[in-house]
Amino acid sequence: MSVRFIELRKIAARGTDSIAADTMRHLHARQHLGKAAVITTQPAPMLAAARKQWLKLSRALQKQRASTLHADKILKYTHSITHMQHMRFTHRSPLEVPDADVYFLTPDQLYIMPVNCWTVYIVNEPQLKEAQAMLYQLPADALVVDYLHRLPWVQELGLQPKQALEADVDAQWRQVKQFLHGYKIDIANLTQENPQTVDAMDDALDTLLGVSRKFLAAANDFQRALELARPLRCSKALRTSYDSLVILAHRVQALSPGVFTQQFLETYNEDDTLFLYDISRELRGEDIATAYARHMAAGRVHLAYALRVWAATQPDQTGPFWLLTDSAVRLR
Prior knowledge:
Elements: E1 5-8, H1 16-30, E2 35-39, H2 43-66, H3 71-86, E3 89-90, E4 102-105, E5 117-122, H4 128-137, E6 143-146, E7 160-161, H5 163-182, H6 196-209, H7 212-229, H8 236-254, H9 279-284, H10 288-297, H11 301-312, H12 326-330
Parallel strand pairs: 1-6, 1-7, 2-4, 2-5, 3-4, 5-6
């Protein structure tokens, strides 16, 4: 049975700019899921205010990118900024502009919703029949964010609280940790800021490259649950553990045979909390032969072989080889 979810959200101050700022911060965490719609009686002014807030978020990310030397963070920010800059906002009907990303619609326009619309923000309340027509067109697991709290979303319209999505994140996280435990990998060892973290990450990467399909399937299930539940409140320690898994999955994917994608970059949290590698080692670099020999000597056969295969596909390997991952090399 198709299930949709409801989040009853409040903001401290009212006004177009305040609501636009909150909706755009919320959307920033969910932008990779698909399209979004903002339901308002003033679509043009709300669009203008929202676009202003969206540009502010993009500029803030550009400043964060400029202030870090961490290769994975640079890649994360670049990916997010590029995606944000290409998102298209419109207050026209989805029939008129089917390829937009964020729609600003009036309540009487809800009989024709965008295809693949995963998030709907209720700024001005629709009638019950309009809300029913809207929900019928949303995909399963879509989220409605209501700022007014007047419609019977749960009692009459059958939506479930967003907490159910957050509970699924916890369940998927337990399954991922159980999978890693079966291969003697403790995610906590990959989040500590000390020199041993580098070797622990390399050892984990070597192990998981030997079971890459099973690991990526488990990581993908967690990724999907995390995407649907975002934005997600959790402790800094847990957020860092989530990011550790994401970066590990990204590296396994990048070094596994097949087409490289940005899949796991999309699940990075919006907070700047990922510090997995010592900067001095990150900047030192080494050539591919040295990296291969070092991993072979340490018994990391899968990782050494994956680096050889990856290097064979690169047009130029005369410069330093950044140990972190092939994505860092792509940024050279």
